[in-house]
Structure formats: C-alpha cells, structure tokens
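Data deposition worksheet. Section B asks for the primary sequence of the deposited chain exactly as it was used as input, without tags or linkers unless they were present during the calculation. Section C holds the resulting structure in token form. Section D is free text for depositor observations; keep each observation to a single sentence. Incomplete worksheets are returned to the depositor.
Section A, Depositor: J.P.
Section B:
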Amino acid sequence: MPDVEAHITGTVWKVEVAVGDQVGEGDTVVILESMKMEMPVEAEDPGTVTEIRCEEGQSVQEGDVLVVLG
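Section C:
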C-alpha cells in the first residue's frame, strides 16, 4: 500500500479526500500549513484512499503518514 507522507513539519490545514475516493498521481490529498504558507501534499501513485491518518488542525512531522492508498 503506498503511503502519502508529510514532506514538511507543519499543521494539517485541509484534508482534500475521503475514504473511498479515487486519486491519481499528482492529486492533492492534504494541504499543510508551515510558516504561514500552504503546501499541497500530492499522491505519488494512483489508488483508492483506504485510511486517513490525520485531521485538520493536527501538527505533523516530516515523514508522518497522512493518507494510505490501496
């Protein structure tokens, strides 16, 4: 299962997907806020969202798994 990980330390500003959604390579799944900038986190592989491991307002570290694709 490909995991979508945070590429920076920040706060989850918005979750753009729901469990069951189909995503393509390059689709934005989560938007992180860091240093007052919004940074999209994109899927590197296509798949179906099987799990969301973050919620809006949550602090995350670089490398944390945000979304799991099946």
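Section D:
The radius of gyration is 11 Å.
The longest strand covers residues 28-34.
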